[in-house]
Amino acid sequence: MYGVILGKNPELGRAEFFAFARRFGLKVRPLEESNNWIVFESKPSVERHFRWLGGSLKLIRIVGESEEAIKDLEYARLFTVSLYGRDDWKLWRKLGSEVKRNFKETGPAKFFKPAKVYSMPAELILKGFPEVKDIVFLFRNDGSFLVGETVRVTDPFELKKLDVERPVQRPILSIPPRLARVMVNLTEVKKGKFLDPFCGIGTVLQEFVLQGLPSYGSDRNPERVGEARRNIEWLRREFRVKNSARIEVCDARKLKRCFRERFDAIVTEPYLGKPLKRNPSRGEAIKMANELDRFYYSVFESLADVLKRNGRVVFVFPAYRLRDESIYRKERGWLGKLGFEVLGRYLDYEERHRLIRDIHVIKKRG
Ligand SMILES: C[S@@+](CC[C@H](N)C(=O)[O-])C[C@H]1O[C@@H](n2cnc3c(N)ncnc32)[C@H](O)[C@@H]1O
């Protein structure tokens, strides 16, 4: 039995986790869920694949339930304690001391205090995880709890490197590498040809290449294409990957002129309109969304030309936070007319842009 701790957008993290489980054939069977964790049965290969998740933080092997389970934990000289579902330092100290007492029967044991009542992956890695253990308590609403040990963490340093160490960076223009990873999982496509037709400086392409997928990208702007190529060359050197990407100058409305391939999955964040200076009114948001939709309509006509039947598109549409703080989210009935089916929609807030990403998971009908 395992548990997964979801990251800062749990709804998106949950959708990604189940998509990832189907993508890698992990036979995940959920047993219990709270707002930031899921407990499940699955194949042990979840441990090997876990590094490819973007929206989760930790994978936990569940040892048992309540204080009883503490004696079944494996010994560690140095450890920390993470509580989920309770924000209580007194309880943290009490459970930590119980674990320590138990470990002391085997050898010397010490535990350290994380910044919150739970440790974050970066803290754990810096302290020496996995030799340094993270003992986890998952609290249910009724106060009962599960006990486990963290066996994998997603690596924030790798994601950071993909972002800030590459030769070309454009913080305003590009999608966070973590989100690119989430979007690739949302396709549920494990093998096959992947395309990003608005590749910009190549963040999504970096993820395709890193995962060893046959990778294709395009952008209308030749400068961006040159920059994406430089970033991919850097990635291949730094991460020692043999795989590469074919990147073309191409208008996303004319893809079949540039690619003879047929793709299994398209993952992209397109042009989302001009950056906003303030939250728009409802009327302004509707106007912007309608104007952009004319463009997206021709883009989807073009995607239909190069996507295989039953192929997947993970596409960021804009949604808007309005002046009254409510959210305007458009319905796009025209997708159905073009032969697409929307399988899921997830919001992700982008602080810097005042814009909300409305991530659509879409299938081209067979
Ligand atoms: C939001 S950026 C994509 C960022 C990219 N996902 C990344 O993280 O690096 C949008 C890109 O779309 C390109 N673009 C705009 N209109 C286009 C069109 N009609 N066809 C192809 N690319 C276009 C722009 O040149 C820009 O690089």
Please characterize this protein's 3D structure:
This protein has eleven helices and 16 strands. By secondary structure, it is of the alpha/beta class. It has two domains: 2-154, VC0802-like (2-Layer Sandwich), CATH 3.30.2130; 158-364, Rossmann fold. The strands form two sheets. Strands 2-3-1-4-8-7-5-6 form an eight-stranded mixed sheet. Strands 9, 10, 11, 12, 13, 14, 15 and 16 form an eight-stranded mixed sheet that branches. The radius of gyration is 22 Å and the shape is elongated. The two termini are 37 Å apart. Residues 173-175, 198, 200-204, 219-221, 224, 251-253, 269-272 line the site of S-adenosylmethionine.
Mean pLDDT: 96
What number of structural domains do the residues give?
2
Q: CATH superfamily membership of the largest domain, which one?
A: Vaccinia Virus protein VP39
> What does the largest sheet look like?
8 strands, mixed
Note the gap between the termini: 37 Å
CA-based shape? elongated
Q: Look at the structure and give the CATH class of the largest domain.
A: Alpha Beta
